[in-house]
């Protein structure tokens, strides 16, 4: 990557602060080392983790005042999720608009991923996504200790949680005693097999405890797509596109933590590493018939094939983080210090070539698009909590974070087939004989990828936060009220110009929560103001050709952050020793809403995109993000997790949740829901334990409602089929388990209907430019996994 790596002065300043912070922890760590380590009551043996003799249930956080749902590994592990995203498919209010059998961008309460704060061990980490979200399909589920849904915000945490927060708690040094190995394989319906395995160990080391683990996970997703295009709904047929889309790769992950815990001091240092190698290979053909698959359309040779396209994208991602945490109780209260560094690197090398046969002479076009991203974040947080009186305490502190995101976007139209791409070009060339007019001379002269205008840039985002809150309680009532001030300085530098755009903003974010215990039930109520900063790619003043389908994208550095006022009101009731049933109402009012809009010319018509070879043809547009006003989101959430012991079935566990979600946004065409928000999501399941034979089996069923997107020129309705998963396991003694899992057993499909228009008046009048129906399907996946504890 050619982007310069010189950090800003503020980045270097925070790095010095971080080093000082880590240095400051060392005397306390040494003090902790002199104290006999205290065994954490949450430490579980490796045998307990590997051989689950009991059914796991969802729970609630008894200590937190704000509403927090907790799902530990025993809740989801029996269904063998591959990633944290797969694990979240079974918790309330989480939807996905991912491809079939993938769970990457979690959408809490149906809102796009950027509205959800993703935390790893309570801290934010950088990810590949420009909206600051972390794609959860990059965290192996094997490393997870528990998943927490934090429905409201607190002054203790950063305010980037409009929809709420998802905290992925990884295993730490006190999570496990002993070790185990894992080995397994996934079997796909096209005959492909992908292996997976791992090794994990935790135990005492010196005055503290250590835990380490490594995991290798084969990833594969063979999808089939079909698109049918018409002049309008129920109109004349235009063409058909058949596409195969195969995602093939491997994830490598590891974590290591060391902790010392004394009577008044706890010190921990932890590191995590994830590497992803992935190739996305798409091959598509367009035909002028609903069913025929004859050869190329030629002036002299009749046929049905209009175009043949091959697109390959090689993706290499690598992220790692290291953090240190220290807590110390002393005469004036408890002091906590956290320092961390995280880095994410991504490289994408994409190549696309297409042969167009629907012309007198076949034409080959080829393009390359190379992307390089690097995110680096330094953070430092210091907080102190002091008792004010019996049952009342004050907590206050500060947070500093410096984030640098370097971007290098390069493209080249009509390059020659590079030597390392010969196999790609031959895929198409060998499919047609020279008689069909596809000779080698379609390879054009060599070209070099060059940076697109504005594509070589750096965004530096420096945050400085202060917060204070009071918390306490009396009898059955617990409460918390606080205020957080967040200051952000953003600098966007076009390294090719060079030119820099600076902006800054400040937000005061009040929050309050209370919890009232009523026998075996409790009422929770929360209110908070939150903020969502603009996507980083939205701020860059560069034009990306065909970034959204055939539409171009133009950044907008003048974007303001979104802010939201919201509240939650819930009731939870304890069912026996392990079960919980709950209902929760929520509301959010989002101001300065950021949405994509079509750039209009002086006459109010959409500006044509670069995909239009004829300027008079306006079937693609230039899209730009803008602050579009105000939106509202509301809904109700139900969740249940319990044993059927009250009915004499103590070895039967059931769980389920239902979320009904709605919203309202005004645009030029009237009111609608938030783009991409599903109207509902539910899942339910059952687990049956057979202790007499050391076995268990279970099933889970999930369904999410339709989602709708609308911008100028295009409207999309997305629906998903239901997902059914089953498992069966056999336990051998206290050390060995083998488990078989079947997922996507209903061959779930993702179905999209695209309504396309050329102007605002044509969209209002429903005068269609094109109507497209696209269906994406994938077959069932079977998995066999064995674990042995030692």
TrEMBL record:
GO CC term (a single one): cell outer membrane
Protein family per UniProt: Belongs to the TonB-dependent receptor family.
Originating organism: Novosphingobium kunmingense
Keywords: Cell outer membrane, Membrane, Receptor, Signal, TonB box
Domain TonB-dependent receptor plug as annotated: residue spans: 63-164
Keyword Signal among record annotations: yes
Cited InterPro entries: Beta-barrel_TonB, Beta-barrel_TonB_sf, Plug_dom, Plug_dom_sf
Protein's UniProt name: Outer membrane receptor for ferrienterochelin and colicin
Main location: membrane
Pfam families given in the database record: Plug, TonB_dep_Rec_b-barrel
Subcellular location per the Swiss-Prot or TrEMBL entry: Cell outer membrane
Lineage of origin: Bacteria, Pseudomonadati, Pseudomonadota, Alphaproteobacteria, Sphingomonadales
SUPFAM superfamilies: Porins
Signal peptide per UniProt: 1-32
Residues covered by the TonB-dependent receptor-like beta-barrel domain: 310-709
């Amino acid at each position: 990557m050619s982007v310069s790596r010189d950090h800003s002065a503020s980045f270097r300043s925070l790095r010095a602060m971080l080093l000082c912070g880590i240095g400051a922890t060392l005397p306390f760590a040494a003090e902790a080392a002199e104290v006999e380590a205290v065994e954490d009551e949450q430490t579980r043996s490796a045998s307990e983790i590997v051989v689950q003799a009991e059914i796991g249930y969802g729970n609630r956080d008894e200590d937190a005042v704000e509403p927090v749902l907790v799902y530990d590994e025993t809740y989801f592990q029996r269904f063998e999720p591959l990633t944290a995203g797969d694990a979240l498919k079974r918790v309330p209010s989480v939807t996905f608009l991912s491809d079939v059998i993938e769970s990457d961008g979690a959408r809490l309460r149906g809102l796009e991923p950027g509205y959800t704060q993703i935390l790893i061990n309570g801290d934010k980490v950088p990810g590949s996504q420009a909206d600051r979200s972390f794609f959860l399909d990059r965290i192996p589920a094997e490393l997870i200790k528990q998943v927490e849904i934090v429905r409201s915000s607190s002054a203790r945490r950063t305010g980037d949680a409009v929809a709420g927060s998802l905290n992925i708690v990884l295993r730490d040094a006190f999570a496990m005693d002993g070790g185990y190995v894992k080995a397994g394989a996934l079997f796909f319906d096209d005959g492909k097999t992908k292996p997976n395995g791992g090794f994990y160990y935790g135990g005492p080391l010196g005055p503290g405890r250590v835990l380490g683990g490594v995991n290798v996970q084969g990833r594969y997703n063979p999808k089939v797509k079909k698109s049918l295009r018409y002049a309008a709904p129920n109109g004349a047929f235009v063409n058909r596109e058949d596409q195969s889309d195969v995602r093939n790769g491997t994830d490598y992950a590891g974590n290591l933590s060391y902790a010392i815990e004394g009577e008044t001091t706890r010190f921990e240092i932890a590191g995590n590493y994830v590497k992803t190698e992935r190739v996305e290979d798409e091959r598509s053909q367009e035909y002028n018939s609903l069913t025929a698959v004859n050869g190329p359309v030629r002036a002299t040779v009749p046929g049905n094939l209009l175009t043949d396209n091959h697109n390959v994208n090689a993706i290499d991602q690598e992220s790692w983080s290291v953090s240190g945490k220290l807590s110390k109780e002393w005469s004036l209260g408890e002091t906590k210090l956290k320092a961390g560094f995280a880095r994410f690197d991504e490289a994408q090398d994409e190549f696309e070539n297409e042969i167009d046969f629907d012309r007198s002479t076949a034409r080959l076009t080829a393009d390359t698009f190379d992307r390089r991203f690097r995110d680096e974040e330094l953070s430092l947080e210091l907080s102190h909590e002091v008792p004010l009186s019996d049952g009342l305490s004050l907590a206050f502190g500060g947070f500093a974070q410096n984030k640098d995101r370097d971007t290098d976007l390069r493209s080249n139209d009509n390059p020659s087939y590079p030597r390392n791409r010969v196999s790609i070009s031959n895929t198409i060339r060998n499919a047609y004989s020279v008689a069909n007019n596809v000779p080698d001379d379609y390879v054009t002269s060599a070209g070099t990828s060059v940076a697109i205008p504005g594509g070589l840039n750096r965004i530096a985002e420096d945050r400085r936060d202060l917060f204070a809150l009071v918390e306490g309680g009396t009898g059955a009532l617990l409460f918390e009220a606080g205020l957080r001030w967040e200051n952000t300085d953003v600098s966007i530098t076009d390294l090719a110009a060079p030119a820099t755009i600076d902006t800054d903003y400040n937000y005061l974010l009040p929050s309050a929560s209370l919890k009232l215990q009523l026998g075996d039930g409790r009422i929770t109520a929360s209110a908070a103001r939150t903020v969502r900063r603009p996507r980083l790619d939205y701020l860059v003043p560069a034009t990306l050709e065909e970034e959204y389908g055939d539409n171009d994208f133009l950044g907008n550095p003048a974007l303001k952050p979104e802010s939201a006022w919201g509240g939650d009101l819930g009731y939870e009731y304890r069912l026996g020793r392990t079960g919980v049933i709950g209902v929760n109402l929520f509301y959010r009012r989002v101001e300065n809403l950021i949405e994509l809009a079509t750039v209009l010319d002086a006459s109010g018509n959409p500006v044509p995109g670069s995909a239009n070879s004829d300027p008079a043809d306006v079937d693609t547009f230039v899209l730009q993000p803008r602050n579009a006003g105000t939106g509202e989101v509301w809904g109700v959430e139900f969740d249940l997790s319990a044993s059927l012991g009250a009915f004499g079935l103590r070895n039967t566990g059931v769980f389920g949740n239902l979320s009904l979600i709605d919203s309202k946004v005004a645009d030029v065409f009237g009111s609608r829901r938030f783009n991409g928000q599903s109207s509902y999501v539910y899942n339910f399941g059952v687990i049956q334990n057979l202790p007499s034979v050391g076995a268990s089996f279970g099933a889970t069923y999930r369904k999410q409602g339709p989602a709708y997107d609308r911008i100028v020129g295009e409207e999309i309705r997305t629906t998903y089929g239901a997902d059914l998963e089953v498992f069966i396991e056999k336990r051998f003694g206290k050390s060995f388990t083998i488990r078989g899992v079947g997922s996507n057993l209903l061959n779930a499909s993702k179905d999209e209907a695209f309504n396309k228009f050329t102007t605002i008046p044509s969209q209002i009048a429903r005068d269609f430019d094109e109507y497209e129906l696209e269906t994406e399907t994938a077959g069932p996946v079977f998995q066999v996994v064995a674990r042995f504890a030692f």
